[in-house]
Design goal:
The chain is of the alpha/beta class. The protein folds into two domains: 13-170, 2-Layer Sandwich (Beta-Lactamase), CATH 3.30.450; 178-389, Rossmann fold, CATH 3.40.50.300. The protein has 13 helices and 14 strands. It has helices at 63-76, 107-117, 123-128, 185-190, 208-222, 260-266, 283-294, 311-316, 324-334, 362-369, 376-387, 391-400, 406-416; strands at residues 50-51, 78-84, 87-93, 96-100, 133-142, 145-158, 161-171, 196-201, 227-231, 248-252, 274-277, 298-303, 335-345, 351-359. It has a seven-stranded mixed β-sheet with strand order 1-4-3-2-7-6-5. Strands 10-9-11-12-8-13-14 form a seven-stranded mixed β-sheet, with helices on both faces. Helix 6 runs parallel beside helix 7 and helix 12 (391-400) packs antiparallel against helix 13. The chain is globular, with a radius of gyration of 24 Å.
Amino acid sequence: MAKETKSWISAPPEGQGPDGARYGAFDESFEGLTASGGPIRPDRPKAEGEFDWPQRSGRDWAMEDLLSLMAWGRKRGMSDLVFTSSDGPWMRVSGIWERVGEGSVPITELTALLNRLSRNEAAASMVGSGVELDFGCELSQGRFDKIRFRGNATAVADGWTTGLTVTLRLLPELPPSPESLGIEPELFAALFPANGLVAVTGVMGSGKTTLLASILRRLSETCPRHIATFESPIECDLVSVPGRKAPVEQSEIPRHVGSFAEAARNLTRRAADVVLIGESRDPQTIRGVLEAAEIGVTAYTTLHTRSVADTVGRLISVFNQKEWASVVSMFLSAIRVIVQQRLYPSPGGGRQAVREYLVLDGEARSRLLTVPIHLLSLEIENLVQTRGQPLERAVRRAVLAGKLSPEILAGVLAEKGRRPNGDGQ
């Protein structure tokens, strides 16, 4: 007979959380999320970086346990939650990973949760065979309160067997307002061109999608322009923005449209005035985005780069060298704004966004079209320094405002090869 596995997560005594707040069945705001009669483990010393969450509803992991944990984490400022069959749950709060409770989630319970979350009974089998799975999900916390997240499931080693890790990123129900993101006035004024391309770049987890969702929210609130988005997955609900001025449709890749390349072909048939292609990472998608911008549509997309100047190089790197000249010409004709965003931990908690950006008018685009391809990155960097906002300047301002530590500035200056007394006005 197999040994019974108990995966209890400890509950705080008397419903008291580590920050003094009251949670779980003891908190009226969570009424109905967890069963009131489940057993509670006695309090115990917690390991460093570990904290407790509301009591479990039973011996096995159930959807209501996940909902309870997600809701509780949202109150704490959680951004990500990771379950691994060989480890306990971990939660990222303000950029810092913290262990949640004790023990691990048995693989049988984790696979059952994955199948339900992904709405695919074969999901766990697919992942176990080596197929990575991305999905989006929405859980109801009440009639008017929903918890939305995007997920990824990947097979991992679990001793000598194959295990599973599931990563869930909490998503806002509505996009944040541009004002709440502290977008610079000069940049804000340039983010809504009548046509052309706006490219938001940065590494994974730098807030690119959130920034774009905020831009589209403002567009939908103020402009009678038809918006179509293609995302993987859909992260913010633009359709529910109050008082929209025009149609908004959101399609998820691959649930509604097979790929970003197919989305790029689809958008030309949709009579859209504004399009969002969630990520430009292959030749077909990039060409589709550029062609849309050329025919009078306002196009938004993201790329993975660490600076504005790296954007052209990243763009052409997926093309055959014989195509570089035509792709660069299309890009420079279409581009209106390049924004590179980063998130750094703030001394007061949370994370602070800083942005390097360049707004390109007709004169700047014409100038760049005369520059040889191998010198474009250098010329764009010069334009960022003289006509845009370099990253070090944005970080220095944040340090002076007390939003970032001086160590962040020192790291950025070292990365950019600049001395501490260099440019940073």
